[in-house]
Amino acid sequence: MPLPCCAEPLPGAPRPVHDVPVVTQYASPEIVFAIAYEDHDPGDDPAWATSGAASQEEYRRWSRHLCGMACLRMSLLHRDGDSPALFDLLAGARHHGAYTEQDDGSIKGLIYGPFARYAQAAHGLAAAVHPQLTMGELTGLLDAGRLVMASVHKSIRTPAENPPHRGGHLVLVRGRTPEGDLVFNNPSGHTAATREATLPASRFADFFAGRGVALDLRPQPAPLHTPAGHTSPVI
Questions:
Q1: What is the number of structural domains in the chain?
Q2: Are 119 and 215 in contact (CB under 8 A)?
């Protein structure tokens, strides 16, 4: 039985915003400011072990790359009331090729196509890749009841400032207000107000890279498959 916000609304009724719990990509939300603005070592997070990381060093290496896993965990918590830990989700995503480690030691990901296959295969969560997504299409997905992992610039946490470019970070857009403002959870929000944020669609567009992944929380009868030759963008 879908949650009230996931079910089809009555004719003429507005689509309710999904009531999604906040999950940050760091185990201790209160240190996000220091990590983002004061060059604080994320490996010093006192709660690192609660993330499911096998070691402090593993946490240090990967925590900056977990915005997509935080979005996935939020979605599963909303749908199921429970979810694997961030690093357990990361292990599954890496197994499916949604992250790759480069020869120079850098990490590439989240890669959308493999992530979508992982979400369906491991969690029964239909994930549709949108390598090109207009703002109109984004709001259409929200009005259809989807959660959308949208690629934005990380400075969306300070929306009064203009971003240097678009994309590179994922937030979970969970609906829009009757006025049309977008409501989203930011895994790297440095305050409560930036972790659960609302922005006018026109301002959100200044940070939005025009790509993302739409998540359908309704029960799925059969696995979805990414079409052969389908491009698979990265965050």
A1: 1
A2: yes
